[in-house]
# Entry
Amino acid sequence: MNPWSLFQAASQVGGEILGDGAVVPSSLSMDTRTIQPGACFVALRAGRDGHDFAIQAVEKGAVALLVDHPMDSDCPQWVVPDTLAALQRWGQARLAAVRPGTVFGVTGSVGKTSTKELLAAAVGGWKTPGNRNNTLGLPEALATLPEGLGAAVLELGMSTPGEIRRLTEIAPLDAGLITLVGTAHIEHFEHGQQGIAEAKGELVAGLNRGGAWAHLASDPWCRWIAEQPWARHAEALPVGDGEAFGWEAVESLGASGGAFHLRTPRGRIPIRLQLPGEHQIRNAALAAALAIRMGFDPGRVAEGLGTVVPEAGRGRIHALAGGGCLLDETYNASPDSILACARALSLLPGGESVAVLGSMRELGPEAPRIHRETGAALKGLGISRLWAYGEFAGDLAEGFGLRAVAFPDFEALREDAAGLSAIPPGARILVKGSRYWGAERAVEWILQSSVFSLQSSVFGLRSSGS
# Structure
């Protein structure tokens, strides 16, 4: 079964086809800035009305439009009462029609995307591209899901209660993984971290009966999830000390990654990663344990894990002039992820360890306290200097103490003499921040600066075939 034509999709979802319904879109897109030729443009009514951009989408190569009223265009159109509902139903129906042998779901307050990559490599499966992990992006990706897959690994994100429940309705899961129940998005949860645990637990509640889900044995909120009546239809698979699955004999390989032995009920399996940091070893152990529990060959699991390389913004390391390095973790930030990356930084080559951090968001009224505590914890982990910017930069600096400086925005961080230009040559630099603050701009500035630049900047990455 190849990707569906408009007629085939409409037969599953409903609606009216105007024009050539035999056209087969190669992908779906809701954004004219990134749309690719051959896509079906989905006009959503959100902050801006997507119908206002439909003609622009056609000009950029869209071969079909999903709209809620006819547009003045010769492009084939699929007209439905509600484009969001049709998008979600399209993805849901496509998954049901070409369902892979095993469908995995991954969520957690930190490390979702890295763990998705690791699990997909471990099982040799298809994975949701990029960060298409919400009620828009997931069905968008599933609508053109290939047929004949042995496994698919879906990333499930959320910022409010009920989102993961809806995602599991769109994509029922055979197995799942929760990396950690932390404090990200806590401002949206009346009952604090228990509310986050309940929301992450929607993944477990949505597992098909008899499924299994992996979690860190040390995570008290995941243990709490496992004890809830709505989770008893699925097997909880704790990974860590004292459990059948765990990791041991951990070895840091610096910028080249790390190595460990996975403990299983049938013996130990050596695994080597190209991702630096002990947090990635934990992620890999979770992925490997779940893959083996679901019947995948242990040797192939280990081999697959070793092929995953860091992506920009998610652990990519750059060598810098003077013997230093930059750890690019700019995609997003939470207290747990910042501290995990600081620990990873300490294992990399270079001089003193420093951090450039954008503020964290969606932490609610406790945000100042959480930033102060994060700053203090960074100092305790051996970070010697801190450059902070954004709304709560002062709180981060206050918690860190001496040798911390705060700036209101990136422009001040960049232009002030005490800002980015004051980072010492040869340092190990962690750059991280919530998406809102665009911390990748700091990475770009550092890499382009004559003080830090090195002609061959990315290192520690082996090819996937090595």
